[in-house]
Write a structure and sequence with these properties.
By secondary structure, the chain is α+β, with helices and mostly antiparallel strands. The chain is built from 9 helices and 10 strands. This is Helix-turn-helix transcriptional regulator.
Amino acid sequence: MPVTFKHDDPDEAKAQIVGITENWQPGSLDLHCHTRHQLMYSIKGVMNVVTPSGRWVLPPSRAIWISGGVQHAFIAKRPVDLHALYIDPVMADLPKWEDCVVVNVTPLVRELVASTVALPWDYPANSPAGRLTRVLLEQLVDLPQAPVNLPEPEDPRAKRAVAMLRADPTTRYSLQELASASAASARTLERIFHADTGMSFSEWRHRLRLLMALELLADDVSVNSVASAVGYSNPSSFIAAFRSLFGMTPGNYFRHNGR
């Protein structure tokens, strides 16, 4: 079921930063782009953002910056409530971010985003509303980035291996087995992953499993069940892997930053 917007084109708004609140049912929005930068914040649920170069997982308490002109698509596997801001690229003091960047949202930024989406789309720059949005920009610059991106390989052989891993993250296929099924040698497939994603094959599969785990954890699936669902032999090894990437345990991840 495709996702549809219920609002006028934010690229045509008079105000420099405008916002909307959306409730998405499971579905997708095909590749498209905006002239303005976007900042999207998931209030509830998990959204996948896909570009030609990678995939980002957006869980609650995290926001994604999508630079103006970047082609992107959205996938929501379960219902999602979100805020979306559209930011004029000619504004001063914008974050120096390119492509897509996911950041950890502080309680202050969360409230600033919520206030901004409630503003009319024609407020003057020199007004209380305009000053509020400039405070938001100042806060964005210092937000820490979150490691929830997954670069996508471009080579068709690697894409076949990726499809197999996404279809069943619990699979124990070795690199050699995946390479044979993808019409490549293990050495060639490893080289492709390094060249296309900047990661080894094992690093890429490790991150894929943990990002898939984020989606399940956001729906309050137990840690034990999540560990099994994404291919870990026991909860302890899953928790250790999760901590190594995100810097905290699964139990603390969604409580962080005020959730």
